[in-house]
Amino acid sequence: xxxxxxxxxxxxxxxxxxxxxxxxxxxxxxxxxxxxxxxxxxxxxxxxxxxxxxxxxxxxxxxxxxxxxxxxxxxxxxxxxxxxxxxxxxxxxxxxxxxxxxxxxxxxxxxxxxxxxxxxxxxxxxxxxxxxxxxxxxxxxxxxxxxxxxxxxxx
Length: 155
Hints:
Elements: H1 3-10, E1 28-31, E2 34-40, H2 59-80, E3 88-99, H3 107-122, H4 124-127, E4 130-136, E5 145-153
Parallel strand pairs: 3-4
Antiparallel strand pairs: 1-2, 2-5, 3-5
């Protein structure tokens, strides 16, 4: 069992199965030593995370949704390195989109749900990353959060 798998197990988490894309894209692209993970929505978790944060979805639930997005990102990374977590150099960047109304200003707090999991699962050195967190008037299928990622890997 890898360090990442052990840490997720310790946290009581497990990675979901890879979900096939529903539209005309691939879940990740590897080019050189970089992996670009397509936007991940919070599917595969214990609940459906849909609605506008700050209106239909409270902060705790929105952070859970971001955490589920992070688990889905880690699933894509696991697949990209064929399960060999030693090939993961670091999470370079997360891009977070929060489905919210025009007066909502805590997008960064929502995306912390994903950022915190990256650090918990990968450790401080590999998990810390650059990031953006922005509000969106809507997201695909009404999901509350969508997050994409860029990782550096060893070839």
